[in-house]
């Protein structure tokens, strides 16, 4: 599931970055935190895959210009149908029934708004001095928490209770919610602490700083303050904050409370959050609590980039590849590529250096949103043997190579791999680059073309955690612990006209499913393929979605557990393909996983099928894909026709009726299959009763130009 953060015109870049980083820190192990613009909100089928929509701080008027009308209607319908909305500062003004901002000043804005999640007026700024695109009006304001909502008890969900009644958070131009306690369905979560500089200081009562509004079946939380702002990413030396000790210093003193408060708010919204013990943003120094100042590029709560280890199934392969990499390096042993810089570490016995980002940020970790991309990556060359598990505790490289060879032998013994004369002809996974925490396996290969050109066919890069994982189109792949994620290099001959490179994404997805379901005893596991390159599973009966499906009397819920991404470049007479794949292997959250399916199957059938490890599943997939790809290139020139029956047995769409929103007017069609030349989706028009139109022409769709929302039966243009 996704958390979408609006990034369209009017959004403050600073607020956007703080919002994305804080959400990734607190809920990033459960949700994919992504940006979306106005076009995406209007045209993409985002609602059913979204757990939270966030509009951060900025300017309200551009929001009204770009979102009024159809987009706002979709947002409001999403929330009323059970969705969640989080409006911060400008997003809170925008989410109210009406706005009154800086009345009587040149910045004055007032009027009605369409979302109307809060049924009253949002009025501000609460504190004077606001200036757009400036920190001169910033303040560290005190807020008093609603103890009935947040006070810690033994029964609080996800241990979301708090043991403090007030804290300080960042403020810059926010409003308050007038008479919030008078509106049904509205709960005040926090109030501004009354101070002399506050607007209307003589008015009775405290002003509501944050409210939760029940909207149909959904929930909207609106806040005039910025609980997402991490003080460790603010530069106290900025003269706009004034002389030290200033706003930043005061915020740093309460940073730990700020993070716990935001975590609790997200938990109250029904989101899965990081455990309390991981939400540590302050340390005691000489008895005084102070904020932790992170190095540039670091994100509080997001794990740091770790070294990459290069090893091979045979030491000679590592030696040859090491010579190639050293040939690309400068005198300091660095490979300086377009997107990344890699530092070669000659052996496990050498000291692994610590690097800071190559491009300093004026505000630590802020101006460079993806600072990890600028950090030099260490590649440790393991010439003699894979590294010990003390250095790679989440992935046993030696175990992987052992299982890779065993799987190859089993393929040969079964006759499936008889076309390979011996194991030395099998190449996928022979060399492996592994990192426990990386930016993105796909980016490190695809965006560094000079390096990628020199890597051998079948080279694999895998990771336990990706902090900037890439997916198809605007999507990215979530990487919770237990998700198998890897990228591999494939050299595909251009002259193989019978074997279009378009089918590679189909073959990889099919290989993932068949690597499991072709094993004896595993045939009935409900793994399926969704066009063009997603892997789905029938949710186990203990999954919450199945209870919903049973209540609605619908068919079993299908949920995504994996996906494939293929990027291509030309290299002489070959396509140089970088294939990325992520599949939930051992983790039950945020959807389900292969091992969860196996456990459920064992429980319901009494069988004892073995679970997969990351190492064994990766080996199975690589061997299966290599078998498929060689068969694809050979096969007497029949290409994908050899896999047609197998593919259709696994896919979800046979005879399904969908609506093509890419056509005007929209068109109802029945899915017939894929073409065998370029892998286009074949459809034919149907009438309202689902009958195929007599003499109707076949409508064909490209896999890279369309987005298929299976849950809604829509095929829309991919933005």
UniProtKB/TrEMBL annotation:
<dbReference type="InterPro" id="IPR045864">
    <property type="entry name" value="aa-tRNA-synth_II/BPL/LPL"/>
</dbReference>
<comment type="similarity">
    <text>Belongs to the biotin--protein ligase family.</text>
</comment>
<dbReference type="Pfam" id="PF03099">
    <property type="entry name" value="BPL_LplA_LipB"/>
</dbReference>
<dbReference type="InterPro" id="IPR004408">
    <property type="entry name" value="Biotin_CoA_COase_ligase"/>
</dbReference>
<dbReference type="InterPro" id="IPR019197">
    <property type="entry name" value="Biotin-prot_ligase_N"/>
</dbReference>
<dbReference type="InterPro" id="IPR004143">
    <property type="entry name" value="BPL_LPL_catalytic"/>
</dbReference>
<dbReference type="InterPro" id="IPR029062">
    <property type="entry name" value="Class_I_gatase-like"/>
</dbReference>
<dbReference type="GO" id="GO:0005737">
    <property type="term" value="C:cytoplasm"/>
</dbReference>
<protein>
    <submittedName>
        <fullName>Class II aaRS and biotin synthetase</fullName>
    </submittedName>
</protein>
<feature type="domain" description="BPL/LPL catalytic">
    <location>
        <begin position="417"/>
        <end position="633"/>
    </location>
</feature>
<keyword id="KW-0436">Ligase</keyword>
<dbReference type="Pfam" id="PF09825">
    <property type="entry name" value="BPL_N"/>
</dbReference>
<dbReference type="GO" id="GO:0004077">
    <property type="term" value="F:biotin--[biotin carboxyl-carrier protein] ligase activity"/>
</dbReference>
């Amino acid at each position: 599931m996704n958390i979408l953060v609006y990034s369209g015109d009017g959004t403050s870049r600073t607020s956007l970055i703080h919002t994305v980083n804080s959400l990734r820190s607190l809920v990033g192990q459960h949700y994919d935190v992504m940006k979306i613009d106005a076009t995406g909100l209007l045209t993409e089928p985002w609602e059913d895959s979204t757990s939270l929509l966030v509009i951060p701080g900025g300017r309200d008027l551009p929001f009204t210009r770009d979102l009024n009308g159809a987009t706002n209607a979709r947002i409001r319908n999403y929330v009323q149908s059970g969705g969640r909305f989080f409006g911060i500062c400008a997003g809170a003004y925008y989410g109210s029934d009406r706005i009154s901002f800086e009345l009587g000043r040149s910045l004055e804005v007032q009027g009605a708004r369409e979302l109307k999640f809060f049924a009253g007026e949002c009025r501000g700024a609460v504190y004077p001095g606001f200036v757009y695109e400036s920190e001169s009006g910033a303040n560290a304001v005190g807020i008093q928490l609603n103890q009935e909502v947040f006070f810690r008890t033994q029964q609080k969900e996800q241990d979301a209770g708090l043991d403090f009644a007030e804290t300080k958070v960042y403020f810059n131009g926010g409003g308050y919610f007038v008479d919030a306690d008078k509106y049904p369905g509205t709960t005040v979560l926090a109030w501004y602490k009354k101070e002399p500089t506050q607007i209307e200081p003589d008015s009775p009562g405290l002003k509501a700083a944050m409210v939760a509004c029940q909207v149909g079946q959904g929930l909207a939380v609106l806040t005039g303050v910025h609980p997402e702002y991490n003080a460790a990413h603010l530069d106290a030396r900025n003269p706009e904050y004034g002389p030290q000790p200033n706003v930043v210093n005061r915020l740093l003193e309460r940073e730990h409370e700020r993070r716990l408060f935001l975590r609790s708010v997200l938990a109250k919204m029904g989101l899965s959050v990081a455990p309390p013990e991981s939400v540590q943003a302050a340390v005691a120094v000489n008895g005084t609590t102070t904020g932790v100042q992170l190095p540039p590029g670091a994100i509080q709560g997001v794990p740091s980039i770790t070294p990459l280890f290069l090893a091979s199934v045979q030491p000679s392969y590592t030696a040859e590849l090491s010579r190639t990499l050293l040939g690309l390096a400068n005198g300091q042993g660095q490979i300086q590529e377009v997107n990344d810089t890699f530092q070669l570490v000659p052996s496990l016995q050498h000291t692994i250096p610590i690097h800071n980002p190559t491009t300093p940020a004026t505000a630590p970790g802020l101006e460079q949103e993806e600072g990890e991309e600028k950090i030099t990556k260490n590649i440790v060359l393991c010439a003699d043997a894979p590294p010990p598990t003390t250095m790679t505790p989440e992935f046993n490289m030696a175990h992987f190579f052992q299982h890779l060879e065993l799987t190859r032998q089993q393929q040969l013994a079964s006759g499936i791999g008889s076309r390979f004369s011996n194991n030395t002809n099998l190449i996928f996974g022979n060399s492996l680059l592994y990192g426990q925490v990386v930016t993105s396996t796909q980016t490190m290969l695809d965006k560094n073309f000079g390096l990628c050109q020199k890597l051998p066919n079948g080279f694999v890069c895998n990771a336990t955690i990706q902090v900037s994982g890439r997916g198809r189109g605007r999507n990215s792949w979530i990487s919770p612990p237990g998700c198998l994620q890897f990228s591999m290099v494939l050299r595909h001959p251009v002259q193989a006209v019978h074997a279009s490179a378009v089918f590679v994404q189909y073959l990889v997805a099919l290989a993932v499913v068949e690597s499991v379901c072709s094993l004896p005893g595993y045939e009935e596991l409900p793994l399926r393929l969704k066009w063009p390159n997603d892997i789905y599973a029938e949710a186990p009966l203990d999954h919450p979605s199945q209870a919903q499906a049973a209540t609605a009397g619908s068919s079993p819920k299908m949920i995504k557990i994996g996906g494939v991404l293929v990027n291509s470049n030309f290299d002489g007479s070959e396509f140089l393909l970088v294939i990325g794949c992520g599949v939930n292997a051992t983790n039950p959250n945020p959807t389900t996983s292969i091992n969860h399916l196996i456990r459920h199957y064992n429980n319901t059938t009494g069988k004892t099928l073995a679970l997969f490890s990351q190492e064994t599943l990766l080996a199975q997939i690589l061997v299966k894909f290599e078998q498929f790809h060689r068969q694809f290139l050979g096969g007497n020139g029949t290409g994908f026709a050899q896999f047609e029956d197998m593919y259709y047995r696994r896919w979800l769409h046979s005879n399904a009726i969908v609506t093509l929103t890419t056509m005007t007017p929209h068109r109802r069609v029945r899915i017939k299959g894929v073409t065998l030349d370029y892998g286009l989706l074949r459809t034919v028009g149907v009438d309202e009763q689902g009958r195929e139109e007599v003499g109707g022409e076949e409508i064909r769709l490209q896999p890279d130009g369309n987005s298929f929302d299976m849950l809604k039966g829509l095929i829309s243009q991919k933005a």
